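Changelog excerpt

This revision adds worked examples to the README so contributors can see how folded entries look when concatenated. The first example is reproduced verbatim below.
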Amino acid sequence: MANQDNIQDILENTLFSEADIHEMCTRLGKQLTEEYAGKEPVLVGALTGAIYFMTDLSRQMDVKCKMDFIDVSSYGNGTESSGKVKLVKDVSTDVKGKDVLIIEDIVDTGHTLKFMKDHFMELGARSVKCAALLNKPSRRVDDVTVDFYGSEVGNQFVVGYGLDFYGMYRNIPFIGIVKPEVIQAYANK
């Protein structure tokens, strides 16, 4: 585990253990193997949060696939979505006529997922679906479908396994809930 000597100071509790995450990846990998049997999907990881999930999930999928990354942002350095999505880095793979599977760490408001789905359809993808580790429908603003997900979560701010808090704590191997008072303290800085 990464040296996170103060991680417990910011966490209310652990939401998903390493074992829980492994089970989600295994279950989703089986579903995606069936979904993409006989196809060659392009897995597109949403940077930076999806890097761990994409790695672990793809190893559970028994399909021939390509992998690429896209970087879009609607958060900046805050904890609330701005609602304005910007493309920071596009994929380098030609997705025209391909089945694209967007890999997300968490789908919250749906702003970035809607942007990415529309973007890949405009690039000529045959299909665009999403696999997310976590789905937070209580915060959904845009009408988007998360086709595959590990678990639904409530309206807590979560961190770890790719999910960050002001750019930190992505490298902890589990997912925890950040204490509300810690969020408030950072917001007041």
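The second example, added in the same revision:
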Amino acid sequence: MSDKLVIADREIRSRFFVGTGKFQNNSAMMSAIEASGAEIVTVALRRLDFEREKGENIIDALDPEKYLILPNTSGAATAEEAVVMAKLAHAAGMPKWVKLEIHPDPRYLLPDPIETLKAAEALVKEGFTVLPYINADPVLAKRLEEVGCATVMPLAAPIGCNQGLQTKEMIKIIIEQSNIPVVVDAGLGAPSHACEAMEMGADCVLVNTALAASSDPAGMAKAFSVAVEAGRQAYLCGLAKRGAQASASSPLTSFLK
């Protein structure tokens, strides 16, 4: 069964994206990334200092031949800030891809829909491949698709909360209406959460905190990887419909006749 994931004309082998924040050290981070099988790895631009010596930044541990390093604009409070961050990252040699994050609220870190749409329009015109992080808002998701974003990345729950699919019904609508890949991002705290998102028809999931906060990041990354594959396979095969009452798996009708 052919099941290719293509983002901006690039075929992506893994449907599991991994973030790089909160790990105790680079060794734990790399162990988790390797165990995950991920191809796309996100890095927060605010955590990088491009003037530091080589080997002192997180991205120095990532082989650009093996991973697509996806810079994100986490920490940007306005569209203007996000656009500047993306341009600086590209000028420093990073790919012209960007995970667009704009969240001025420091408590819940919820994305600003107005500034996100504004920044997406500007970055697409500049030739960036834009993957915007958004609230689970079907209307906004369609607007971002229309301006040329490569994916939409609706949150399952607030960043780092590990609550799982709190926005499930809205994500279902986004998946139904979308003509571009849907990446469920933020709030997935257990492999079962990732599996459920994939069973719904999400194209990918992105996980960070659940791996970094685990006592065994590499083991947890492997567990998530297996869950993502299982969820995708279940979606492709078609889940059995839920019933309101019991239905015998071995009916006696023919035997009695």
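Reviewer comment on example two: Residues 5-237 form a domain with the TIM Barrel fold (CATH 3.20.20.70). Strands lie at 5-7, 10-12, 16-19, 40-44, 68-72, 97-100, 129-134, 153-154, 183-185, 204-207.
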